[in-house]
Design goal:
Blueprint (H helix, E strand, L loop, with lengths): L1 E2 L3 E2 L6 H12 L6 H10 L4 H10 L9 H14 L4 H10 L15 H7 L16 H23 L5 H14 L17 E13 L2 E13 L4 E5 L15 E5 L1 E6 L9 E10 L4 E9 L9 E5 L10 E6 L6 E8 L3 H4 L17 E6 L8 E8 L3
Helix pairs in contact: 1-3, 1-7, 2-3, 2-4, 4-8, 5-7
Length: 379
C-alpha cells in the first residue's frame, strides 16, 4: 500500500522529504495546514497527498483522526522550540493560534512574518522595521523542525496525546468554542500565559536546573514583573539567590518581612506593560540540594491561567538515575499525583533514554497544579 508520491507505508521519511512537505505547507495562501493534512488523508489523488505523504503515512494504522494526529505533533514540536525567535516564526509559518494582537493569521507567509513585528523584544529592541529577521529565523527553525519531526515520525510514536493537542489547537482558533480560564483569586499575578516552556535538567534524583520561558499577556495596566516561586524557602542572603534572568528581565530580590521568611524574588521586565500587551522573558532556577529526591516537576498556576496547548514540561534525566515510570498529572491533590497510573493509561510517558516531554492540551486554570511525576527504581 502506498500513500502520496508512491511512498510505501512503513518506510521512514527522509529529513529532506519532511522539510519539503513543511515548506510547501507553510507557503499555502488558500487555507490553514489542517485543511491540507485532511486532504492528504482523505483524497489520495490530491496534490496535498502527493506532497504531504511523508507526514501522514506514519499514521496509516490509526482508525480515525489522522490529520489531527499530525497537526498535534507539529504543534507540539513548534511549542518545544527553545529559541523565542524560532518559536514565534514557526507559529506564524504554520498559523498556530493565537496570532499577535488578538487577530487571525494573514494569508501569505511574508505577511504573517510581518505580523510578528509587534512582538516586544523578540526580534530586537526596538522592534525591526522589516521582516528580514523573521526570514532568517525561518531558515534555521525550519531545518531544526524537520530534523525533529523526521526522528519522531520514524519512532512510531503514541499518537493519542497528539490527537488531543491537534484538536485543542483548532478550538483555540475557533471563537465559538474558545477556552476560558476559571476566575483567578484576588491575589493572583495579573497576567495570562500564552506559552510556557519548562525545561528541567535532573542531577541524580533532583532538579539541578529549571529553565522557564514565558510568553505572557498583561491583564491590567502597570504589570512590570513576575514573582518567581521556584525557590520557595530560600532564607539566605538575597544576593546569593540561585535564580538567574536569562532574557528580557532582571532579578530583584529582597528579604522577607520577618526573620526566617523566604526571600522575595521578582523578575523585573524591561518596561511596564499595558493591559493586553504581550511580553516574553526567560529565567533559570538552580537547586543546590542535590541529595534531595524529587518526585515531580510542578507548575503552580498563581496567575490568570495558561492557554490550551500552551504549557510544555520537558525533563532531561540523569543517565545514571532513570526513573522506573513517569506520568503527567493535572488538577490533582498531592497524594493523588504520586499514584502511578495503570498500564496502558494515556497519562503514562515513556522514559526511553531519559528525555521526557508533555504538552498539556487543555488550558491550565488558576489555583491549580500541573506537572510530571515519576517513580524511582528501588536502590
Amino acid at each position: 500500500m502506498t500513500i502520496g508520491m508512491g511512498e510505501p507505508v512503513g518506510r521512514a521519511a527522509s529529513r529532506a522529504e519532511v522539510e519539503a512537505a513543511l515548506r510547501w505547507l507553510a507557503k499555502r495562501k488558500d487555507g490553514e495546514p489542517l485543511r491540507f493534512l485532511r486532504a492528504a488523508v482523505d483524497e489520495p489523488a490530491s496534490e496535498s497527498a502527493a506532497v504531504l505523504g511523508s507526514l501522514v503515512a506514519p499514521t496509516v494504522s490509526l482508525p480515525e483522526a489522522r490529520a489531527f494526529a499530525v497537526w498535534g505533533l507539529l504543534v507540539d514540536e513548534i511549542g518545544a522550540a527553545g529559541n523565542s525567535r524560532h518559536h514565534n516564526t514557526l507559529m506564524a509559518a504554520f498559523r498556530v493560534p493565537p496570532a499577535p494582537g488578538g487577530t487571525g493569521w494573514k494569508a501569505t507567509l511574508g505577511d504573517r512574518f510581518r505580523q510578528l513585528m509587534v512582538l516586544p523584544g523578540v526580534f530586537g529592541d526596538p522592534p525591526p522595521t522589516t521582516a528580514a529577521p523573521m526570514h532568517q529565523a525561518w531558515r534555521w527553525s525550519l531545518s531544526a523542525l524537520a530534523d525533529r519531526l523526521a526522528d519522531k515520525l520514524a519512532s512510531e510514536p503514541d499518537w493519542r496525546p497528539y490527537i488531543d493537542i491537534g484538536r485543542a489547537a483548532v478550538e483555540i482558533a475557533d471563537e465559538s468554542v474558545a477556552w476560558r480560564a476559571r476566575a483567578a483569586s484576588k491575589g493572583a499575578q495579573p497576567l495570562f500565559v500564552e506559552r510556557m516552556l519548562v525545561t528541567a535538567v535532573m542531577h541524580r534524583r533532583t532538579v539541578g536546573r529549571r529553565i522557564t520561558e514565558r510568553d505572557i499577556v498583561a491583564c491590567e495596566d502597570g504589570v512590570d514583573g513576575f514573582n518567581a516561586h521556584a525557590l520557595t524557602g530560600w532564607t539566605h542572603d538575597p544576593e546569593e539567590l540561585p535564580l538567574a534572568a536569562l532574557w528580557a528581565c532582571r532579578v530583584v530580590a529582597s528579604p522577607g518581612a520577618h526573620p526566617g521568611d523566604p526571600v522575595l524574588a521578582r523578575l523585573r521586565f524591561r518596561r511596564t506593560l499595558r493591559k493586553g500587551e504581550r511580553y516574553t522573558f526567560v529565567s533559570e532556577a538552580l537547586d543546590g540540594h542535590i541529595e534531595e529526591e524529587r518526585k515531580w516537576v510542578n507548575v503552580d498556576i498563581d496567575h490568570h491561567g495558561i492557554a490550551p496547548g500552551g504549557l510544555t514540561i520537558q525533563l532531561a534525566f540523569d543517565a545514571k538515575h532513570l526513573p522506573e515510570a513517569c506520568w503527567w498529572y493535572a488538577e490533582q491533590l498531592e497524594f493523588e499525583r504520586t499514584r502511578q497510573p495503570p498500564d496502558g493509561d494515556s497519562h503514562l510517558l515513556p522514559v526511553g533514554d531519559g528525555f521526557v516531554r508533555h504538552t498539556f492540551a487543555d488550558g491550565c486554570h488558576p489555583r491549580e497544579d500541573y506537572g510530571i511525576a515519576f517513580r524511582w527504581k528501588s536502590s
